[in-house]
Design a protein that fits this description.
The protein is mainly alpha-helical. The chain is built from seven helices and no strands. The protein has a domain of about 80 residues.
């Protein structure tokens, strides 16, 4: 049985296609974690916008009039994962389980880490 064909849809996918297993792994992550999964796609997209340093999200990340507690907690965790691991303190770890189940935290953390790596990969000129 041969691997299913995955047509590259971007320049980055064309680079990944040079190693078919890498493209297949990326396609699976995109389908099962980034575009679906336990955590709402919109929340993962919000965290991706934060990682991309979207001024609108950065300026309001802790604004309760703009984002609900679950969104603000996700953005705080995104910040800790991406830029300041010291921010993953006892207060944040007390806050996260009120908003997310453990499997949701695993998925969201993976999505954030994956997107961060993807951003760095794409910024290298791929």
């Amino acid at each position: 049985m041969s691997a299913p064909k995955i047509d590259p849809v971007s320049e980055a996918d064309a680079v990944r296609a040079r190693v078919p297993a890498a493209l297949a792994a990326y396609a699976e992550t995109r389908a099962t974690v980034l575009e679906s999964g336990l955590v709402d796609r919109e929340l993962k997209a919000l965290c991706a916008r934060y990682l991309a340093e979207d001024d609108d999200v950065l300026a309001h990340a802790d604004d309760p009039e703009r984002f609900d507690e679950r969104e603000r907690a996700a953005l705080a965790w995104t910040h800790a994962i991406a830029w300041n691991s010291d921010a993953a303190d006892a207060a944040l770890w007390a806050r996260l389980p009120a908003c997310f189940t453990e499997p949701e935290l695993v998925e969201l953390g993976y999505a954030v880490a994956f997107r961060l790596g993807q951003l760095h990969f794409e910024q290298t000129g791929v």
